[in-house]
Predict the 3D structure of the following.
Amino acid sequence: MLIPSIDLQGGHIVQLVQGEKLAIEASDPEPWIQKFSRFPRVQLIDLDAAKGNGNNSGMVATICGRLPCRVGGGIRTVERARDVLGAGAHAVIVSSSLFRDGAVDVEFARALAEAVGVDRVIAAVDSRGGHVAIHGWKTMLPITAVDAVKALEPYCAEFLYTHVDTEGLMQGTDMNAILAVRRATTRRVTAAGGITTVEDIERLDAEGVDAVVGMAIYTGQLPLDAFR
């Protein structure tokens, strides 16, 4: 399954290369809301909230009212997760707050799952150079994505695995790394990072992995007409 991605920064839809360099910026979200309206799942990330630079809560609520969104960005507390779900998100994507002192923060993961329900928690596990990367992919942990997935499995219904090394570059992804995560859990798995072609998405689908795509859609390299 293709899951289109919407990233928000400064009130605009953006696409960044490697999470830093601005490549695409759209001030009007309406065309993209219309394009994505036929998809059963859309990923919505508030980059400002993730970076601690304010938030785009108004836009998040508006888009969640129009599209079936799973929302991430700055979800560091149970209260914040409840607020995002209350704004219309179908599920929350939680990343850096699931880790503490170089390991999985089982206490927080359990508290979040108990508060909002396991079925509404998506655990984001991002990998760079073979290790889990948090805090905007700048802090490397001494554990692998597979280690993290195994520890977090009881506390989420789905994993979002981002292969940071290929994110935003539109040069393909690392199928072996994605499939290692797929084999490590019985939970649903969605992959991101360098997924560019219909063939990439079809191969992942055959392995039971959904695909989040941003840059390839916004540049027109991946035609949405291929997905009916």
